[in-house]
Design brief:
It contains 20 helices and no strands. The protein has 420 residues and is mainly alpha-helical. The longest helix has 23 residues.
Length: 420
């Protein structure tokens, strides 16, 4: 809704588009609990947002010329459904969300601000969620978004979809947004309160599937039908194939080693392999190629024991050479632990444990605890699981950590002696 309204009203009025959509959502929260949910909630929200925008147009002379455009793009909606009209857009890209992504990824906007703005405007993520994705400070992310909006407004950056070299210049940023968008859906940590934009739940399949849809749209257009696009799609398909096995019937997180692989979606794995094959065309190798190859090694393995951890470790070594981020370093250390033994994994984790970005990252402590557990260092494992529980994590992740803590140090047992 925000993307379509911005296309109609112009980029100078991005804030207006966000405001009227927000007002529509607030009105729904006020009315639906008492009047019931409309037969077509989407159509209802669009109609309210359109009317709010029309009210603002009547009061603002500078927007008067946009009234006919707004009415043409948002015809009367019915319970049967709604599809935005494109009377003024002749470009190949008849998708406002993807068009908005290319706008937000304009080269005049600093790269980190581009991604943050796109996640906020197109993905609908809160500042808190975006900061978590970047392992960054919320205030810093908020400032990036404010500056990016100001640049769009002051420089009158156009929503028009770029072509040729300009299109390819923005593509990497767009792919980066889709990657983060999928990740947030794949491991959502919303609590349903405060700054989180969604209800509790570990997986937001709608967000993952939207990232997949937009990626497929990119692959369907000749100019962006590129190996790295297919590599990203392969990654999405491999990860989404595990949706049914990642969360138990009680809503608890299921670790990879404990997942029922019979529940993995074989058709999605096959699609992933097809896109991975398509990504091998040409000489280009991106981060997505390496991550998709890692995901494929998990997808085709019968179980954890038969997983080719040596191959995965080698891929992580290559990825770390390209992108030496704390999270890549952490995943590399975990792969080393499975491939070369828990002692080697602990040694690799010690090399990165002082990185500031990982100071409150529960997976660092949980990984150290797991390897200590495998070595029968019960006291150290218990201490590290407690450290992980002190970090921010999703309720389902917290329950998994609590179960593991109880496994190494049952609440009814005596405190174990520390292993020296």
């Amino acid at each position: 809704m925000v993307s379509t309204l911005t296309r109609i009203l112009g980029t100078r009025h991005l804030d207006l588009a966000e405001d009227v959509v927000q007002e529509a959502l607030i009105r729904a929260l006020e009315q639906w609990p008492f009047r019931g949910i409309p037969e077509n909630p989407t159509a209802w929200l669009i109609e309210v947002a359109k009317n709010r925008a029309l009210d603002r147009l009547r009061r603002d002379a500078s927007l008067a010329s946009k009234r006919d455009d707004l009415l043409a793009a948002f015809p009367a909606v019915t319970a049967a459904g709604f599809e935005p009209a494109y009377p003024f857009q002749t470009h190949w890209l008849r998708d406002d969300q993807l068009a908005m992504m290319f706008l937000c990824c304009h080269p005049e906007i600093p790269e980190e601000s581009r991604v943050a703005l796109t996640l906020k405007t197109v993905g609908g993520f809160s500042v808190k969620e975006i900061a978590r994705a970047f392992l960054s400070d919320e205030a810093a992310v908020a400032q990036r978004i404010v500056r990016a909006k100001r640049q769009i407004r002051e420089r009158a950056i156009d929503l028009g979809v770029p072509v040729g070299a300009a299109l390819l210049d923005r593509l990497d940023s767009v792919l980066g947004v889709l990657y983060l968008m999928f990740n947030e859906g794949y491991l959502s940590r919303g609590s349903g309160s405060g700054e989180d934009s969604h209800a509790p739940g570990l997986i937001r399949e709608d967000v993952c599937n939207e990232a997949l849809r937009l990626g497929l749209l990119l692959a369907s257009y000749g100019a962006t039908d590129l190996p790295k696009v297919h590599a990203l799609l392969a990654l999405f398909y491999f990860h989404s194939s595990r949706f049914a096995s990642r969360v138990s019937a009680e809503g608890d997180l299921v670790a990879l080693a404990d997942q029922d692989r019979a529940k993995w979606d074989r058709s999605r794995i096959e699609q992933g392999l097809l896109h991975l094959t398509a990504s091998a065309e040409g000489d280009e190798e991106s981060d997505y190629h390496l991550e998709a190859a890692i995901a494929s090694a998990h997808a085709v393995a019968a179980d954890v024991a038969s997983t080719d951890w040596g191959y995965i470790t080698t891929l992580y070594e290559s990825l770390f050479q390209r992108k030496a981020t704390p999270v890549v370093a952490l995943n590399r250390a975990i792969a080393i632990g499975y491939g070369r033994g828990p002692e080697a994994g602990l040694a690799a984790l010690r090399e990165i444990e002082l990185h500031p970005s990982l100071a409150n990252y529960y997976l660092l402590f949980a990984s150290q605890a797991h390897f200590c557990e495998l070595l029968s260092f019960r006291s150290e494992a218990a201490e590290l699981y407690r450290a992980a529980l002190a970090c921010e994590c999703a309720p389902a992740e917290r329950r998994l950590l609590e179960r593991r803590l109880d496994r190494v140090y049952p609440s009814s047992s005596a405190i174990p002696e520390k292993n020296l």
